Amino acid sequence: MGNRTISEKIKEYQQKVETIKKGGGEKRIEKQHSLGKLTARERIDSIFDPNSFQELFMFSKHRCNFMGMEKKELPADGVITGCGEVNGRTVYAYSQDFTVSGGAAGEIHEKKICEIMDMAIKCGVPFIGINDGGGARIQEGVDALSGYGQIFFRNTLLSGVVPQISIIAGPCAGGAAYSPALTDFVIMVKNSAQMFITGPSVLKAVTGEEISTQALGGAMTHAKLSGVCHFVAENDYDAMNITKKLLSYLPSNNLEEPPVFKTDESTLRRDETLNNILPDDAKQPYNIKDIIKKVVDNGKFLEVQEFYAPNIVIGFARINGRSIGIVANQPAHMAGVLDINTSDKSSRFIRFCNCFNIPIVTFVDVPGFLPGVDQEYDGIIRHGAKMLFAYSAAIVPKITLIVRKAYGGAYLAMCSKDMGADRVIAWPTAEIAVMGAEGAAKIIFRKEINEAEDKEAKFQEKVNEYKKNFANPYVAAAHNYIDEIIEPAETRRHIIRALESIIKKRDIRPPKKHGNMPL
């Protein structure tokens, strides 16, 4: 080519950039849009602040020479990687490009992802993965598998050091599904996202089962049934907005405190409606989220795993401008009973909050652990123990509000004083006991009831006697298991004051590698 001028070299560079940015070309981009999906670059543009994204490794190329790959040009090797700012805070991210070889991941593609994961941990900033790809590139064989292994290894290194968020905006199948599963939060786009280890065609061939892609691994399947999905997005834009909202509650790394926002509402306001929010009948359900929203700043609550194990509610809110994690029994579903799925759901959330210095506020109205042969056979003892372990191991500020029922082992599992709660607050409606009055009366007063002429009247008399003596917060308060009994209308003021007084607490534990959680 001889000696070229500077302008020729710059023009060549510009042409290369233009070609790379077109990804798989106009036809494939149109196909992507026809499916209601954004391209990889459009997703990057929609999540990062304008003009803040720095693309890294744009000119990466695969080096596979098998099965015709030597003739294939794969722009950016099918993944956009780099860093930028999300609401002014630095974040590293990758976005798989489905228009380039179906977003399949090969050695260099995976190396790009590993490079930015390494930078995220060095810089102490969040890491986001936008997944839209067909899994490992078959032509690259063990090199592609090795790359996935290196990503999984880094997911584990980043865990508990920087927040990791996975957005599933298309297919994410086979081994590729394990990287999102290792991250802190999984956001799936309705109708576009698919996650499974074994796809429908293989299932049919091996087991004879017939099922659609969405029924097997769609967003609602994983949101309701498996618990793999934490948030369901209506479309790609919604997924990016959920990510931004989620990041606003989190610190950039485990050595920072969560961001504090100024609140424009009256800090210590009373809310008279809380005095009348509970039904008079203790067996009557109500929605715990109505209480949560009346207590937190501006009534804003970002619920996590809304559709999975709905008998417990978890999520993020702010109180007096501070980020908090909320764990709450939900009487509106299965009376708020604890079971295997609620134990898993809440335990992982508690551990996430502890990793990232987010105080935990627990709202308690729990009748106990769910009885049943299936629960026992499936390991309710092992799973329920996870909650005990997670709360006991958490050293962040922990505030517990007992609203109504707090019975038996479930009372302990919902962060009682004995599980390390720094402040336990109760409403006058709180009932703290080994079990409900009816069950207790049948056991304690069985002989008297059986010998009575009017067994039903005697039973009711003993139930009322038990309620008078135990179905209240005063016995527990007398023994210092409750710090404060408060008027419900004053709940926000008491939680704010409690949080401000314990926010700088230090909880020193014996040195060890890590505990052995019952998994």
Overview of the molecule:
The chain is an alpha/beta fold. It folds into 3 domains: 6-248, 2-enoyl-CoA Hydratase, Chain A, domain 1 (Alpha-Beta Complex); 272-435 and 473-502, 2-enoyl-CoA Hydratase, Chain A, domain 1 (Alpha-Beta Complex); 437-470, no CATH class. It is 39% helix and 18% strand. It is built from 20 helices and 16 strands. It has helices at 6-21, 26-34, 40-47, 107-123, 141-158, 178-182, 200-207, 213-217, 219-226, 236-248, 288-295, 340-355, 373-377, 380-393, 408-413, 437-444, 446-451, 455-470, 474-478, 491-502, and strands at residues 54-56, 79-86, 89-96, 127-133, 164-173, 185-189, 194-196, 231-233, 301-304, 312-319, 322-329, 360-366, 398-407, 423-426, 431-433, 484-485. Strands 1, 2, 3, 4, 5, 6, 7 and 8 form an 8-stranded mixed sheet that branches. Strands 9, 10, 11, 12, 13, 14, 15 and 16 form an 8-stranded mixed sheet that branches. The radius of gyration is 27 Å and the shape is elongated. It starts with 5 loop residues before the first helix and ends in a 17-residue tail after the last helix. Residues 6-262 form the CoA carboxyltransferase N-terminal domain. One of its GO terms (cellular component) is acetyl-CoA carboxylase complex. InterPro entries: AccD/PCCB (IPR051047), AcCoA_carboxyl_beta (IPR034733), ClpP/crotonase-like_dom_sf (IPR029045), COA_CT_C (IPR011763), COA_CT_N (IPR011762).
